[in-house]
Write a structure and sequence with these properties.
The chain contains 5 helices and 5 strands. The protein has about 130 residues and is α/β, with parallel strands linked by helices. The protein has one domain: Rossmann fold. Helix 3 links the parallel strand 3 and strand 4.
């Protein structure tokens, strides 16, 4: 079951085995948060392929409000992370990101993602709209 659109985002998890994407998305969220006057925001970045499979438990335990995950993560897929987190009762908003949305749109949504975004699309506008 997909999560409700977040009304207040304080805890964000970024999951991608490419540290550059995690850094880019982190900078986008930090910039938007400052522009909107949000002073306290916690961002957890996960890039280590050996630790990524433990993310579903972390999402539930830390009550993450918003998760952004890539599909291809070497040791697990982003869809699997979303599915496992949902099966553990995670209610946060979850976004799947991918360079191939035509191929991975359905697997992300079937796993319980709320939104699928192409990595080459305008991240800034997508995330700005979420933090309204």
């Amino acid at each position: 079951m997909a999560g409700p659109r977040p009304t207040e985002i304080r805890r964000i998890a970024l999951i991608d085995d490419n540290p550059r994407y995690v850094q880019l998305i982190r900078m986008i969220f930090e910039t938007i948060s400052k522009q909107k006057g949000v002073s306290e925001i916690e961002i957890v970045g996960m890039t280590n392929p050996l630790e990524i499979p433990s993310m579903p438990e972390l999402l539930v335990a830390r009550e993450i409000d918003l998760t952004v995950t890539d599909f291809n993560l070497r040791t697990i897929t982003g869809a699997e992370i979303i599915s496992r987190a949902r099966s553990r009762g995670h209610q946060g908003f979850m976004i799947g990101i991918t360079t191939d949305p035509f191929r991975y749109h359905s697997p992300f949504l079937e796993a319980g993602a709320d939104l699928v975004v192409e990595k080459t699309s305008n991240f800034l506008e997508t995330f700005r709209n979420l933090l309204v």
